[in-house]
Design brief:
Blueprint: H1 20-30, H2 33-47, H3 50-66, E1 88-94, H4 98-108, E2 117-122, H5 131-136, E3 142-146, H6 152-162, E4 167-171, E5 175-177, H7 181-192, E6 196-203, E7 217-218, E8 226-230, H8 232-237, H9 250-260, E9 265-275, E10 288-290, E11 293-294, H10 304-313, H11 316-331, H12 334-338, H13 342-354, H14 356-376
Parallel strand pairs: 1-2, 1-4, 2-3, 6-9
Antiparallel strand pairs: 4-8, 5-9, 6-8, 7-9, 10-11
Helix pairs in contact: 1-3, 2-3, 10-14
Length: 385
């Protein structure tokens, strides 16, 4: 959703508060059943009016059955003119994934809108660098940037600073793309007069692909492995926050910063990449799989940057809820989230109770490190001319 107050006839035209029915009808339209139930329990506790909340839930269910939600999906769209001479610099950090980088560079070289340059930020050890690779792809504009200090945001910032193009495209090294990848991003920006795009990343492992990946919409999170914007945007809102280096949510923070500045971030369903989620290299080098799952069983949980992000943008109550929901989702195995017997749930709870002291210690450790990050403040460089 996006706030558009100019759609109102006059300020305050809809001053009446939402009814309980409308609150839950909105949730039913946007989220799954479990989240509606969660929101109902949460609101009943917060308002201390469970009867009123229950009536609202029941009324919203009747309204949903009476008026089914419209089916969302791709529709026939009028062509939008794009600049096929656009000067695009592709930013591509890499670490420990040369075998995946080579086919990706070949795919970038076959784009319907060719890139001006492909800036590969190589963070591999000097003795492990594949210099022949850069010679093989020099003809399509591949430019290596060798970087001794490893980090996904310091590397992207370095590439943006050196970029010669008017547009900056971002992609991860464990990706596969179609020939119209860059063209689709340009088309999405032009169609909605947006300032930042994020494409559909289709994972080969993990959760099913969400239905809302199939249509244009305001993006709920920006993906640094699949996006495009004008280079000048970084001059307006700043570069990436390097405080997130080797951790998580740095791209979410940048996307949110852009949205909070009043600019539009749009999800482009036609700009797809297959995210291979390589088991080695990239952030896996530092033991990170995602924010609440780590290879380091004794390390902080969640990754401190997750709580740094939450502390930057959320209230104290929202921070507690964000932490609680994240821990529950991370701790419950996938096989229990589908179909599980009471005996399986009992075994899981008993096992987690044994690990509870360790969990508490890890959460506290994460909080201490996140507090240090908050005290240090953002590390957002400015774009140099």
């Amino acid at each position: 959703m996006r706030n558009a107050p100019d759609l109102l006839a006059a300020p305050g035209a809809l001053a009446d508060p939402l009814s309980e029915r409308d609150r839950f009808l909105l949730l039913r339209r946007l989220f799954g059943r479990k989240w509606v139930v969660y929101a109902g329990l949460r609101r009943a506790l917060a308002t201390r009016r469970p009867v009123r909340v229950g009536r609202g839930l029941a009324a919203s269910a009747r309204a949903e059955r009476a008026t089914p939600a419209p089916v969302a999906g791709l529709v026939e769209r009028e062509p939008v003119a794009i600049d096929r001479t656009a000067r695009i610099s592709v930013v591509l950090p890499t670490l420990g994934r040369y075998e995946l980088l080579r086919p990706l560079l070949a795919q970038l070289g076959a784009q319907t809108v060719p890139a001006l340059e492909i800036l590969v930020v190589d963070q591999n050890d000097p003795e492990k660098r594949d210099l022949a690779l850069y010679e093989d792809f020099a003809a399509i504009g591949v430019v290596p940037i060798f970087q001794e200090v490893r980090g996904q945001w310091i590397s992207r910032n370095a590439a943006v600073q050196r970029a010669q193009g008017d547009w900056i495209a971002f992609i991860d090294d464990d990706s596969e793309i179609e020939p119209d990848f860059l063209e689709a991003h340009l088309e999405g920006l032009a169609r909605y007069d947006a300032q930042l795009t994020t494409g559909a990343s289709l994972a080969v492992v993990g959760a099913p692909i969400p239905e809302n990946y199939g249509f244009f919409r305001v993006a709920d999170q920006w993906d640094s492995g699949n996006g495009l914007c004008r280079r000048s945007l970084f001059g307006e809102v700043g570069l990436f926050d390097q405080r997130y280096d080797r951790q998580r949510r740095g791209d979410a923070e940048f996307g949110l910063r852009v949205q909070l500045s009043g600019r539009l971030v749009v999800h482009v369903p036609t700009a797809t990449r297959v995210h291979l989620k390589a088991a080695e290299g990239g952030l896996r080098t530092f033991g990170q799989w995602d924010g609440f799952r780590s290879k380091q069983r004794l390390g902080p949980l969640p990754v401190p940057s997750m709580r740094y992000y939450s502390a930057t943008y959320h209230s104290a109550r929202q921070q507690r809820e964000d932490l609680g929901l994240g821990l529950v989702h991370a701790l419950v195995p996938y096989h229990l989230k589908r179909r599980a017997t009471p005996l399986q749930w009992a075994g899981f709870v008993a096992k987690e109770l044994l690990h509870l002291p360790s969990l508490v210690r890890r959460v506290r450790q994460s909080g201490v490190l996140a507090a240090e990050m908050v005290e240090a403040g953002p590390d957002i460089p400015s774009l140099q001319p």
